[in-house]
Amino acid sequence: MNRQDIALGTFVSLMRGSNKFEKIVKDDVSFYQLNITEFSVLELLFHKGKQTTQTIKEKILIASSSTTYVIDQLENKGYVERQVSEKDKRVTYVQISEKGKTLMEDIFPQHAETIENCFSNLEANELEQLLKLLAKMNRQLDKQPKKRGI
After folding, report:
1. pLDDT per residue over 69-86, tens digit each?
2. pTM score of the predicted model
3. Which of 26, 59, 82, 119 is 20 to 30 Å from the Cα of 65, by its Cα?
4. Dihedrals φ, ψ of 92, to 5°?
5. Rounded CA gap, 48 and 52, in Å?
6. Rounded distance between C-alpha atoms, residue 62 and residue 65, angstroms
């Protein structure tokens, strides 16, 4: 097999794996009446603390309008709270509520175990190597041109 064939096969494998991971995670979080985007916001706030709406949008890679909608949904469920910045009224912070924190303390360990189980056929050193290789690949992807002229 030449390098291009290997690259194409690797791409297909990554995409298939990504789709399978997404289904596993969606199924996992739906058990708690959350969608994957809501869970992603809660996970960010749970582990990183209070964030601006803009930071949430950038970290979980969704559109601004969707970010507002997701935060609205989480606020309606009582999982997050908004705070307008005292220094700049144009900036809104979002933080996890006590109810949200309790939920994440309950579900995150099982969620992490579900993810870990997806890699159960890899030895610890193989998993570490995969992480390094994917990080290296992502750094290269960050350098790729946004549009290709034809």
Report:
1. 999 999 999 999 999 988
2. 0.84
3. 26
4. -115, 130
5. 11
6. 8
